[in-house]
Amino acid sequence: MELVDEIAAMRQGRGNPGALVGEFRRTPLLVPLVDGGLLTAVFGGVRWIHAFTDEAALARFAQARNVPPDQEWEYVSLLGARLTDAVIPSMDGPGGVAVNAADEDASMLFPPVKGIVPDAVAVDVDHADQGEGAR
């Protein structure tokens, strides 16, 4: 199944969390660039990277943010695994990925928890024994 199908299955209560995370990790996602960095937003103490499964989902997000239709957005394509395993650990504070944020019935959050991000940056792991680099 594709990521959008796994998200739909989860939202309908018939999904498999392991399959969802696996498909997320394998999927190339479009991440807009703003001021030389990835488009993020902070909510609930977490910095969320905005990522999209295709250009149509990105366009719906831009429209929801009242971006003029003729304005182009530069973006990069990154695997979900690259976002969680490399980008998020390099961020200051907890980070997660918000996929297709403008699609009410097709969006999904991948929070900074064990099984999604590396344990060293997961907010639900006791870092007391992990030394100086732990968050």
UniProtKB/TrEMBL annotation:
Top-rank lineage group of the source organism: Bacteria
Descriptive protein name: SseB protein N-terminal domain-containing protein
Organism, scientific name: Streptomyces macrosporus
